[in-house]
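Reply to dn_fold:

You asked what the input looked like. This is it:
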Amino acid sequence: VHQAVERGTPVTATLLEQIYRGLIERYYGPDYSLGPDDGMEWAYIPHFYYKYYVFTYATGLSSGIALARRIAEGGQDAVDDYLAMLAAGSSAPPLDLLRKAGVDLTSPAPVEAALDSFERAMDELETLLAVDD
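and this is what came back:
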């Protein structure tokens, strides 16, 4: 899409359908049967037209993983901190509430911990599937 814009090509629904259909074909491969309207799927995926919100998935997962790890390792104090954060509702900014619950999203630690968690899960999956590099 960016290349089309740079060339001065109008971004139409037809162009987006062609691009998206090509991506689906490449992603799923030749054994996947596309329906006639599958190329229009782009129109109902809000990631493509609502700006600046997808980052909340990463911050939410990072926060959740950090909170779960803290509870698993920290016992009742961590549980109490988590419940206090939930009880606080929207009485303070989310970063402040998370910090009081033991998660500091202004540091790289929660994201790094989440990435480590994903890496361990992938390693376990590869072991279970006996996948060779």
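Residues 109-129 form the longest helix (21 residues).
Hope that clears it up.
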